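Researcher: Watch the backbone:
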Amino acid sequence: MRCGWIEGVAISLALAAGCEYDRYAVEMTPDGDSCRRVLTCWREETNGGKDEVPTLKPLPQEELDRIAKLYPNEPQESGPAKRIFTGCFKGALPSDVGGAGTYTRLTTELGDLFTYSERFRGDDDQARVLADMSYAADRLTDVLILWFEPELKEDPHWPKLRGFMETDLRQDIKNGALYLWMAGPAGNLEWSFARAAQYFQERGYFQPQDVPAWKADSPAGGKLVMEIVRRFVASRMGLTPEAPAPPSLGFLSSDERAEASWDRFRAESPAYRDWLAALDLKRLRWKPREDAARGKDKPDVKDSLGDLLGPSLVMLAGDDADHVGVTLVCKVAPLYTNGTYDAAKGAIAWSEALRKSPFLPVLCTATWDASDESFQKAHFGRTVLAGEDLAAYVLWRKLLSEADAKEWMAFLDALKPDGGLVEKVKAFRFLSDPKPAPGATGSLANQPRDLILKALAPPAK
């Protein structure tokens, strides 16, 4: 047995060798106020081999039926595994992959502004996720104290160790869990492990030369790990490195003795049963074991700490996830996107692993514009507003009152690309503008006027 109790206390994560992953390909083509959406979905099954070609299967019928209710057209088959759903949507997008999204077009006489934003799965309430993580860390600290107390209560150094566990250890467990959770937002599991290792090394939990012992899968490695653990516990009891380990720490002298002590504590201690009964299972996201009796709704002493605390405490975003690929047709370079724009293809693309709660959702977003070149050339002689300037104009224009909007439209309709164009733009004021003080130029029209005059200004020599 290789440090079984340590794995339980640390709540390690076991990854299955054979896995099934769902795949979603979303293609969107804007068409005025609506957006045509094509979803292709299937399931891939692998046995864990690196070069293995996955077996393709359809999504479960229940999932396909759920998606079908979101689309106006019947799904089409593409081979034995893939299913294709097609529909046009205005405003809200279907929650087919899981999440929420919108496609928005803001129209004006000078051009339009478009935005696409969609969340896929995940958990937006990260404040609750972190609060539940802290709760799980507190419960882990509590049960470690309950376990150590009957073994060490007669040792005069126990109060000092208990004080450390109540404060520093409690905080260190929370920080360690947080660094692992950050692997998801940071997108770098190795960085999170390295940062967590640095954190615990600085606080004396281990030294760099101890790393081989943690990685060695052998009885010798297990013995070295127990020596590291016992050395650290002794140091927090106030003992010097040269001092021999006290007899009270005998329960940490080997894998077997530590595991026997832990199992005895879980089986016999009323304190453990009280701790177990007081757990907030909802905050811990606890689920019955697969081998548990049908209808079981509460944990028992057979549940490991990993089963009890792991879902809320150790959140590692590994590679075992569903996947979504999104392609959005966009003929102009977007003003903003977190995707990858391909000018040759005229499209923005995203490729993301899908995470369920408690991880952060995937977010795909883009903003782009489309100038009404015919209107602008008819009234200004050329295209005067595009890109970020057009976006600023559209946002200003959509906030006008109905009366101001009519007045502004009448002003634009009367403009002609002649010699007096610049003077007319400079002179425009809304009837609703307050009477200016002498020398003042304040007007609701300041922003669009400045944008247009900037474009009409002769190029600098």
Remarks:
- Residues 369 and 387 are 6 Å apart (CA to CA).
